[in-house]
Specification:
Oligomer: single chain
GO molecular function: metal ion binding; metalloendopeptidase activity
Radius of gyration: 18 Å
Number of domains: 1
Enzyme class: hydrolase
Largest sheet: none
Organism: Cepphus grylle (Black guillemot)
Family: Belongs to the TIKI family.
Order of helices and strands: HHHH
Strand content: under 5%
EC number: 3.4.-.-
């Protein structure tokens, strides 16, 4: 699986450099959707851009199954568990110091797709609101 993942990542990078493959969104798209509080929009319907997309319809069936297994593993280990840990840390701080004010800053990847830090906090009963760019806190 490691060799497969490495080969697919290298092939994807080579395609990007050759211009035969393009990322479906730009940095400007990411900033715009982040500012609008809309990171779950259609351009981010794949749980996160931080996980390479190995699943490709042109792969043979056995390789497509390997790609799906790797995708599930990355999502679980690199995204969902990390967001769960971060959400628990925020919750623990809020509970330990109820009279204090906090400001938490996370990278955009923590807000995309499912099982985000916000999802974790909402499941714990917290109300989380998006503050648009330029709005006073």
């Amino acid at each position: 699986q490691v060799v497969f993942a490495l080969n697919q990542t290298l092939l994807q990078q080579e395609s990007l450099r050759a211009g035969s493959f393009q990322i479906p969104y730009t940095t400007e798209d990411l900033i715009k959707h982040y500012n609008c509080g809309d990171l779950s929009s259609i351009i981010f319907n794949h749980d996160t851009s931080q996980v390479p997309n190995f699943i490709n319809a042109t792969l043979p069936a056995h390789e497509r199954m390997t790609a799906q297994e790797i995708d599930r593993y990355f999502r679980q280990e690199l995204i969902y568990k990390r967001n769960q840990r971060m959400g628990r840390r925020v919750k623990d701080l809020l509970e330990e110091y109820p009279d204090k004010s906090f400001f938490f800053a996370f990278g955009a990847g923590h807000f995309m797709g499912n099982n985000t830090v916000i999802d974790v906090l909402r499941r714990e009963g917290y109300e989380v609101e998006h503050t648009p760019a330029g709005q006073a806190i």
